[in-house]
Amino acid sequence: MSGARPPRRGEELDLDRIGPWLEANVDGICGVPTVTQFSGGASNWTYALSYPDRELVLRRPPRGTKAKSAHDMSREFEVQRALRPVYPWVPEVLALCADPSVTDAEFYVMERVPGRILRARVSENERPTPAQCAALCSDLIDKLVALHAVDVEAAGLDKLGRGPGYCRRQVEGWSERYERALTWNVPRATYVRDYLAANVPDDVGACVIHNDFRLDNAVLDPDDVTRVVALLDWEMATVGDPLMDLGGGLAYWVQPDDDIVMRALRRQPTHLPGMLRRDQVVATYLERSGRSVADFTFYEVFGLFRLAVIAQQIYYRYHHRQTRNPAFRWFWVVVNALILRGYSRIRRARGRLLDAPRPLP
Q: Which of 56, 130, 352, 357 is deepest in the core (most CB within 10 A)?
């Protein structure tokens, strides 16, 4: 797990309070840990707690205004605890703190999984071969298929589901979130939002979905880059439509022939030789899961729009000075690029090309 640095200014942990709580609630913990912060995430704050003989990870929400249902640490903790016995690629959670006297927000700690995470840039001497990339993609898709095959009731996660209509609820919910987070420098995305609202499919199923399924959320075996040993960031996991999960993950899957803006936004090395293309990811998943769909456009566009909303919610906090993390300064550019990509994908699917650049509706 790379990318750990000293905590950002204003995001330090109060070890005078958290340290004693950890000693009292996590077996085998003693002393004050060395704390570093992972820089890869853009939502919850994640820290490494290093003891002489043990490594833990602490997760907590950011400070500042946030969506009502976002950053729910107790929910994320309980989902992982319920899922681990039936899905071994979930890190072991250890303790949840909901005591406001300890810190200003809920947090939980889990075991740190030793391994490697592939970020946007991979050095030449650490770059997987084309054969390794292909094998890694295959294993990653297998992990998604296995997750979607988990018995929801046996895992005790059926309470997360709200019944049929998941796809429609997602379209309506993310459209409302976007409306609330608008700033002057992003489009209203009317064309994309209207397309999604008019083309909502029936749910193809109801299963456990990760909802943030990405290559850079996968911890790889330190000795075998083709093998996924853990999946991270279960904040948005729920019971819902599996194709929506796949579509959400593909929004991050940048190919070498994508436009220059999307290549600049890449945060995982899906451009390397041997990595599957998006259509190959979809085809492989459908074959191995036994599911089918005539046209994947809706799910792809939804994934792009949802990612645009997530980026805009984060940028909204930066815009209103609720966070000063400099990484968020240009997220409004990301939002514009994702909306344009969704717009172009709809037009291409309808058999029309954009005549010329024009302002987005």
A: 56
Q: Which amino acid is at 105?
A: A
Q: Among candidates 256, 225, 242, 236, which has minimal Cα distance to 140?
A: 225
For the cut 70, the answer to whether the pLDDT of residue 293 exceeds it is yes
Q: Topology of domain 4-111, per CATH?
A: Phosphorylase Kinase; domain 1 (3.30.200)
Q: Which residues pair with 4 in a beta bridge?
A: 38
Q: Are 150 and 249 in contact (CB under 8 A)?
A: no
Judge whether 13 and 63 are in contact, CB under 8 Å. Answer: no
Residues 323/327/333/338 CA torsion (nearest 10 deg): -100
Going through the chain in order, the beta strands assigned E by DSSP cover 4-5, 34-38, 45-51, 54-60, 93-97, 107-111, 207-209, 218-221, 224-231, 238-240
Could you write out the DSSP letters of every residue in 107-142? Answer: EEEEEPPPSB---S---GGGPPPHHHHHHHHHHHHH
Q: In whole angstroms, what is the distance from residue 22 CA to residue 57 CA?
A: 12
Mean pLDDT across the stretch 93-116? Answer: 93
**CA angle, corner 267, sides to 320 and 86, nearest 5?**
100
- Domain map of the chain by residue range? 4-111, 124-349
Print the SS3 string covering 162-194: CCCCHHHHHHHHHHHHHHHHCCCCCCCCHHHHH
Pair 103, 35: CB distance under 8 Å: no
State the Cα–Cα distance between residues 335 and 36, nearest whole angstrom.
29
- What is the pLDDT confidence band of residue 354, given thresholds at 50, 70 and 90? very low
